Structures are given as structure tokens and as C-alpha cells.
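Assemble and predict.
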Amino acid sequence: MKRPRATIVFVIACSLFVTCGVSSASPARSAAVDRPAATGPGFPVSVKSGDGTVRIASRPDRILCLSPSATQMLYEIGAGSQVVGVDEYSAWPANAPRTKFSGDETNAEDYLYLKPDLVIFAYPSGTIIQQLEKLKIPVLLLPAAATIADVDSQLVELGTATGHLNGAKNVESSFAADIASAVRSADGDGRGATYYIELDPTNYYTATSGTFIGAEFSLFGMRDIADAAGHGSQYPQISPEYILKENPDYVFLADTVCCGANARNFARRPGFSVLKAVHMNHVIGVNDSVASQWGPHTMEAFVSLLARVLRQSASS
Amino acid sequence: MAIAAAEEAPSVLFDTAPAAAPTIYPTRLRPSHVLVGVAFLLAAATLSVLIGPADLPAGAVIKYLLSKLPFVHLHSGLSTTGAIVVWQLRMPRMVLGGLVGAMLAVAGASYQGVFANPLADPYLLGIASGAGAGATIVIVEGPALGNLPQSALPPAAFIGGVIAVAATFALGRARAADRSAASMLLAGVAVSAFFVAVQTFLMQRSSPGDLTLVYGWILGGLSTAGWGQVGLVLPYVAVAAAVLFACRRLLDVLTIGDEEATSVGVRASHVRLAVILAATLGTAAAVSVSGLIGFVGIIVPHTIRLIAGPSYRRIIPLSLLFGAGFLILADILARTVLSPGEVPLGVVTAFLGAPFFLVVLRQAKRLG
């Protein structure tokens, strides 16, 4: 099938938008990145962690953050100056002190040269948490958010843990306002539309509406075709036949970086040339991180992109 | 002392009683076995094109397929999408499943023959680890290697598998005086360990997204099957199956031992080389498009052995039929157990394979 050149340009533009979403962050958000002052209640504090409650005796000044989403949150709430190291996948902000750590390390000794006084994980490996606790280093576990409310509560936990509760609350409210504004701008476009978000082009792994990425689509009233396939899993593997049967209105490819997926090679897969989304030029490539990072920066950029896509398709 | 003992008890050494007759197994392929195999394969293939989340009417699907035959003009009533589901998704998936299953089963049977090892499977000489390392290199290091596309994965897996077996062969034959099956097996263990280490190292350095892809490949599946992949695998499977089919009598001869085989004019090392070469190329081609699907190469030949006897003149052709049918059925399960979600095919075959091992072991114990 012949693909209009404008569509390809549009898809590339969408990918770049989310990939380089730094420039799209709101001014309020950018200002927060450099906010130096520590505010909020005094220490010690107790914060809710993924594995219980963590007591932090004093304001941490050497934070090691091994979750790209938490890195975004730390810099947004103004705790960036307290960060001494972030994992290799933390792409935003660009000036964060990146290390070679992946967050999968199983030996706490690896981290000691940074002398961290707080370590933040999303997906810890082995007994790393117990090892750090033996070394008297508090650990904050912030697992993947499932809803936007989860993101808000993680902002508050981080604000409390770092002495930036006011900054966290400011970010929380501006984040909510920005998201609401983006949703309003779509003016109901996309309501009831179906979508498929692809995480892997070889096994057709996808995400249901019970994930943070699904929650973003739900804001616009869109319906995830993967919901019927979950069977308890929020990231199920579905069959290409089911995609053809459901014939989604929109397809989002969150495997452009890992696997080189794009609208053109998607349409070339067996049978997919007849999909409604292919005919309507609604196959949109986005940066893989939109499905793996729930930081406000990434989420806001993706929601804005989504609003723009829905508006554009409604007007065309 | 031995002579004295013999004098004291001559009947022990020079037993004049009639010796127990050796068990003679029938070797000719029985038409009834072939008929059952063909019926099993046809039933599995038919079910495979009739079942799927698109809920297409069975009658319409059958009419549509019949209309593809020359001189048959039928109106199936299938929608355009329905026709695409049948012809571009279900059919190539069924055919690819059949080819991969047949290849893995016949390769497993052949390996068990040349190595006289009932636990031998097609991955014995390092294909799995070599192909796994090849696939992992493309997934993890693809961006660093000039942005290798995903389409580079099957050839990389194929090349990795072939390199691993070639290395096993080179190591196993390094000692000219010791070209036994045992040295080949040990070399296979060493080569597998090496390639697994390469793969593990790469996985340890990869992102969570890449890990999902690697695990997806390791667990195997046919969800991306298309006619292109069928065309890619078919020549390898056809040639490999033909060679192994031709070697079935020689495999029977090898069961009496290398020296004995030589005494009747069969050069065991040559037979072993031909069988391993054919089984390796066929398996590497199958693995390159389906990922690692375990247990087929063990379940199918052993089931046939239990039903039809130990002769490779029976096991090889029946493995082709039953292997194809078995994997098509396993894929139906993979597609339907959590429909419209999917379960990795390798998980389904392992679920079936693990309990089957217990049955085989019990049966072997019962037979002494």
C-alpha cells in the first residue's frame, strides 16, 4: 500500500516529540528542576515504601536513584541537587549524574563508592535491599504506578523523604492541571475509540488499561483491546489474529527504539494491511519509554501527544 | 582358578541349555501406524485453521480453503478480514508449526540414535545456546551494530546454532584417537556452557525491554508466522528430513555399536557426521523462526518408541508425522488457553513434556 509522505513525517514528528520531550515540559516544571531550597517537615520522617515503611533519620544529601521515573520526580520537586547518581536509563534531565548502574545489581558494595544516604529502586534484584539495610542505608522502593493517583502518591513520598514536600505538592498540582488541560484540548475526540499499544513486535506483548500507560489512554475515554486478554496479567501477550478481529482505531508502537517498529513495517506484517488504523494513518510510533517510565515528565509529554493525535485525526 | 572352577561347575561356563532367544523387534513400517499418523496430523491441522479468537464459522473456513483448490468454485461467505485471518495468519502458522514440530521430532530421534542416548534432543550439541547467543546479540547489541533490524534475528540465530555445533564437532574430534559419541557429547556440554555464558553476559547488560524480547524468543512461539518464514524454513526441513529418512536403516545398524557396525560394512563415523549435519541444519532453521521449543524432540520419538518399537525404520517417518501434529496441537493450546491472550509455545511443550518424562521413566523401569 502506498503511504502518504505526510503521514510518515507526522509519525516521525510524534516519535521525536516524545523522545525529546524535554522541550515540551511546562515552564513551571522546568523551573522546579533547579529549585535548590529544601522545604517540608523536619526529620526524621517515615515514608511509605513498596515493601513497608522506611524511616529516614536526616535529610538525604547523597541520593542514588535507580529508577528513571523517580529520577524525573526528584528533579521536578527540586531535589536534584541532592542526587549523586542515577541509573543508566534515566534520560531526563540531561544533566543528571548518570552512572553505569542498571538497577539490577545484586551486590550492595557496588554502590558504596558514591556514599549514598538514600537509595531508590523500582525493581530491586536479589537481596540488595536487605544488604543496604545492613549497611544502614535507607531504601525507598517505588514500583510501577498503575494509575495517575499512584504517581501523585510517589511524588509525595519522595517529597517527604527528601525534604521537598511543598515542591512535591506543587508538582502534583501542576501535573494534574497540565494533564487536565491536555485532555480538555482533545475536546472529547477519541472517546470510545479502541487502541492497541505494542511493546514487542515478535511476541505481541502489550499493556492493558490497568497500567499507567493504559491510564493515560483512559483519560480520553479510549478502550484498550488488550483488556479482554489480560487474565490477571497487565502486560499480556496477544495473538495477531485478535488484533485483526478487534481492528483497533489506533495503534501505538512503543517498540520503535528496541525493535525498529514503525508504521510502514507494521502495515507489512501478515494481514495487517487491512487494519482500520493502517488505512486511517493511525499507526503512531512513540519512544519505548512511554510504556516503561511513569515520571510526570514522560507522562505529560505522552498525554499531550495523545491529545494532539486525537485532535488531528478528528479534524482530518 | 578359572579352569578349576570350570571343571567344578562346567554347566556354568559351557551351558548347554538353550539360550534365551534375543528379542526381535519388527522393523517394517506398518501401514496402520502411518494411517494413524496421517489422520492425527490432518486432525491437528484442521483444528488449527478452525480455532482462533476471530470466531470464524467453521463451515465458511472449510469452504474458503476448498475454494483455494484448483477447479473448485465455492462462495465461503467469509469477510475480507476473515479470509486474511485464515490465509495469512492461521494457515502459515499451522504449516510452520508442522514443519518445526516435524523437524524437532525427527532430529531428536536421530540424535538419540547416533548417540545411543535416550535423553538426547536436537539441542544436545549446542544449537540452542548458539542460536540463543545469536538472537541475543541482535536484540541487545543490534543498535550498536549499525542498527540491526529485527529481521536479522532469524539469520543470526541460524548462524549462531551452526557455529555452536561446528565448534562442538571440532572439539569432539580434536583427539584423533577418541572420536566416540561420548567425546562429542562432552564437547557439546562445554560449547553450550560457553554460549550460555555469552548470552547471560549480554542479558545482564541489557535493558528490561530487551530482556522481555530475549525471554520471548527463548520461550518460543509462532505468533509472527507468515508464508515468508515458511518459505525460509521449508528447503532446510525438506532436505534434512530426506537425509534422515534415508539414514533410518543405518541408525538401526548403529544401535549394535560402532565396531559391530564397521564389521558389517557401515562406517559409523560417516553415518554420524551425515545425520548430525542434516539434523543440525534443519533444527537451526526451525529454531531461527520459532525460538527455543523444548521437549518435542524427546516426547515424540519416545512415544513412538513405546508404541511402534525401537527400530528407526519406524521411528523416523512416524516422528515426522506425529512431531508435526504434536506441535500444531500444542500451538492450538498456546493460542486458546488464555484466549485472546497467548501462552509461549515453549511453556506449553514443557508443561506436557515434564509429566511425560515421568511416564517414560516409569515405563522404562517396568520394562527393566
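The first helix of chain A runs from residue 5 to 19.
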